[in-house]
Specification:
With 218 residues, the chain is an alpha/beta fold. The chain has seven helices and ten strands. Helix 3 packs parallel to helix 5 and helix 5 packs parallel to helix 6. Bound molecules: adenosine-5'-triphosphate. Adenosine-5'-triphosphate (ATP) binds next to helix 1. One of its GO terms (biological process) is phosphate ion transport.
Length: 218
């Protein structure tokens, strides 16, 4: 079953065609890597899919229905977008991992949060760590965890490993694998990283606002 269908999607701004006639479908639980030169329109495309930006042409179907027909808050719980610069809020790691519970009016599951931290090589007592004391890699791990405390159906990762050292990159790669295999999350991964492109099961290439390649390597 296709969880996502992108049909003839375009985006025009300031008389410039930034995306033009993009077509592809994504199967449930598939991992799709998206690459292409800087400025080619990759972020614009996934931001449109995440409903953070509107398209100017075409149609997108999520789980059998137009993305326009969903309640925006519900939709963003199911299709979650994570950016290269992790945005953390509040004062502590707890404030961030508790947030998904707060917006759902649910009691914070401290044990679940501690287990989640330990699964990404962060000690359970990191819950009370000030976010100003975290390294870049630790910030990214906490931001990713916040996005999956309640697993979305689709997780969009926009260059989340850019700027991370090898150790942190490796931990984030393991997180991605678990999100897909254990939590059954469909993933769209934007990357410039050669290793991530080489190991991609399916690689979509965007150039100059157009889909130039869609290669299945399985
Ligand atoms: N709302 C907008 N109005 C005007 N121009 C825009 C808008 N959104 C994106 N652009 C332009 O569209 C082009 C594509 O941007 P986008 O961020 O999607 O590229 P990208 O492929 O993700 O690049 P990078 O790999 O550097 O992140 C850029 O030139 C950008 O300035």
């Amino acid at each position: 079953m296709n969880i996502l269908e992108v049909e003839h999607v375009g985006f025009q701004a300031d008389n410039r065609q930034i995306l033009n006639d993009i077509n592809f479908t994504v199967a449930d639980q598939e991992v799709v890597t998206i690459s292409g030169p800087s400025g080619s329109g990759k972020s614009t495309l996934v931001r449109i899919i995440a409903t953070l930006q509107s398209r100017t042409a075409g149609e997108i179907t999520y789980n059998g229905k137009s993305i326009d027909s969903y309640d925006p808050i519900e939709y963003r719980r199911e299709v979650s977008y994570c950016f290269q610069q992790p945005t953390l809020f509040g004062d502590t790691v707890r404030d961030n991992l508790k947030f998904p519970y707060d917006i759902r009016n649910q009691a914070f599951d401290e044990q679940h949060a501690q287990n989640a931290l330990q699964s990404v090589d962060l000690a359970a007592n990191y819950l009370d760590k000030q976010i100003t004391e975290l390294s870049g890699g630790e910030r990214q791990r906490v931001a990713l965890l916040r996005n999956v405390m309640f697993p979305p159906r689709i997780l969009i990762l926009d260059e989340v490993t850019a700027g991370l050292d090898e150790t942190n990159k490796h931990i984030v790669h393991q997180m991605m694998q678990r999100f897909n295999q254990d939590d059954k999350i469909t993933m769209l991964i934007i990357t410039h990283d050669q290793e991530e492109m080489d190991s991609a099961k399916r690689l979509i290439t965007i150039e100059n606002g157009q889909l130039k390649g869609d290669e299945n390597r399985e």
